[in-house]
Structure prediction request, 387 residues.
Amino acid sequence: MRDEFDAPLLPADVEASDLAPEARMQLKTLDKDNADVVARHLAMVERLIDDDPALAHQHALAASRRAGRIGVVRETLAITAYQLEDFGLALRELRTFRRITGSDEQLPLMVDCERGLGRPEKALELSRSVDAATLPTPVRVELAIARSGARLDLGQTQAALDELRIPELQRDVAYLYSPALFAAFATVLEELGRDEEAAEWIALADRAIDALQAAADPGEAETVRVTEEWVDVPYEGLEDEGLEDEQTADEQAEDDRVQEQQEQSVEDADEQDSMAGVVDGTHAESAAAPIDAADALVDTSAAAIEAEVEALLADVQDTTVADDAASSHEEDEADVALFAIEPEDAGESATELAESDAAQAEEPAPDAPAHEADASDDDAAGEGPRA
Prediction:
């Protein structure tokens, strides 16, 4: 049976909304009326913890009587008990909080409670029960400070200093945990008789406090509230240059993609038409013109030479007279500027290939049957590109 307990009165000006939202979320499992009362008691703890820790503890007890299975309630009761140096109650409540939530965030306070109970060895053992690397940085710093205190309790002063030599001990940067860490480091230095160094770290702790306060205080910064209002603008009243709709980034990207696809389709179609013309001889006049080695660089790769040979063979399919081939050659030279200059190579120029193939094309007798001329062309095509 529980002892009789008179809950402290709740002032009219304290409301459930005064409690932090993340703490109120944990009270959702309670009925609304009970949750509101518990939230108001916890809000009073926050209001009184520094000025009247005893009354804050009474509010924490009242909340615990109403919501003993809520993690934040047991945590709050532990903190008020610690403030009153009731380390036994604080440790029990912290263990319950840890069991309910599975959180190790109050491990440093548990270690300090063991110290408060006169058990520094137990405190160090408890501090090693969790891998410090898995803890958030502020909790890891608090744990280092608690371990250092336990070392001091055991008279291990140098070991206490070593416990504080952690990556977060940075003299040129101030975090929320920095003042406490700097002050603890200064305390151990004083124990070692290194007073000058201790004074430096005390000064650093004060500077860190000032820097954090300055960062938290907006000072005379002006608060600007921005509101948006939709305004209907008649279309007819717009100037000509304002009529164009601005494209979003996604719309522009989509337009670019469609344009690229269209250009690629045109290029593919042109390439197919060109290849078809080379095969059947209908586009011989539009084939790539032979380029003099003195005027331009020549691409003598296998693919390029083969394409030139096929184009030239298509030119000589019309076996009329050499004058027609020369005329076609002159017309094609006018199109040289339309083609990109290719890399130079030491192989035979396209002009020499054209003259050699033209000479071979003139060898068949004028009265040779058409099928024999076709066979000659096929044999020439089968010889492959020249080196």
